[in-house]
Design a protein that fits this description.
With 53 residues, the protein is mainly α. The chain has 2 helices and no strands.
């Protein structure tokens, strides 16, 4: 999932440089959502793995 967040971030950067503001904003929004979902999943996996001693 982090891979897709980085891909959408790169798309947003390229679209912003080329002047496609709407596409850049959409791709940046998707990248933010995917990154937050990744962080939540990583934290859940980390704490679920710690509890099994």
């Amino acid at each position: 999932m982090l891979h897709y967040a980085v891909v959408f971030f790169v798309i947003a950067i390229i679209a912003g440089v080329l002047g496609f503001g709407g596409i850049a904003a959409g791709a940046a929004g998707i990248a933010k959502i995917l990154f937050v979902v990744f962080l939540i999943g990583a934290l859940i996996a980390f704490f679920a793995g710690r509890s099994r001693v």
